[in-house]
Automatic annotation (TrEMBL):
Family listed: Belongs to the germin family.
A Pfam family that the UniProt record links to this protein: Cupin_1
Organism: Cephalotus follicularis
Protein name: Germin-like protein
The keyword Glycoprotein belongs to this UniProt entry's keyword annotation: yes
Length: 212
């Protein structure tokens, strides 16, 4: 009995997305419900269609005409209801020449990236206190993994566009872009807090906050 309880506790502790108890649990897409659950409500299996497992559009080039020079097209459970409870999602990442997908983290998913076009410099940083940087230059066909929750980035180091596809181990991995969260929070984090945390002048903090 003790072993059974231990096994159950371990399975719950390591599960980030709801585990399926049937073949599928297509998102009902009920926007009127006031109930919040860790996952989505299931559509009646008898009403499920092939379209519930289908998404079109990853062949389209993303708009990279922004400050970072990158665009992410994430296919998660909100876009593809058939992903519900399956613990997986997908993203296309487009890069302008020398474009950057800035340092960010996925709080609920590990990311596995494969380069389809171009050359990328990628990396992630381990947690405190080591803060060790693992970085690698990737070419077409190369694969790199970013462990769950760790800050990571991808940058196109070529003078031509680049494209990558990422698989993520969650139906809704989430994303926290570090600069946006720190300097673009609403309401803003105290200037005193940020100046002490980053050991920079308060005026520089105010300038950085104004950029968001």
């Amino acid at each position: 009995a003790a072993l059974v309880l231990l096994a159950l506790a371990f399975s719950f502790a390591t599960a980030y997305d709801p585990s399926p108890l049937q073949d599928f649990c297509v998102d009902l897409n009920d926007t009127t419900s006031a109930v919040f659950v860790n996952g989505k409500f299931c559509k009646d299996p008898k009403l499920v269609k092939a379209e519930d497992f289908f998404f079109s559009g990853l062949d389209k080039v993303g708009n990279t005409s922004n400050k970072e020079g990158s665009a992410v097209n994430l296919v998660n459970v909100d876009k593809l209801g058939g992903l519900n409870t399956l613990g997986i999602s997908l993203a296309r990442i487009d890069f302008a020449p020398y474009g950057l997908n800035p340092p960010h983290t996925h709080p609920r998913g590990t990311e596995l990236l494969v380069v389809l076009e171009g050359t990328l410099n990628v990396g992630f940083v381990t947690s405190n206190t080591d803060n060790r940087l693992f970085t690698k230059v990737l070419n077409v066909g190369d694969v790199f993994v970013f462990p769950i929750g760790l800050i990571h980035f991808q940058q196109n180091i070529g003078n031509t566009p680049a494209v990558a596809i990422s698989g993520l181990s969650s139906q809704n991995p989430g994303v926290i872009t570090i600069a946006n969260a720190v300097f673009g929070s609403n309401p803003p984090i105290s200037t005193d807090v940020l100046s002490k945390a980053f050991q920079i002048d308060a005026n520089l903090v105010k300038y950085l906050q104004s950029q968001f």
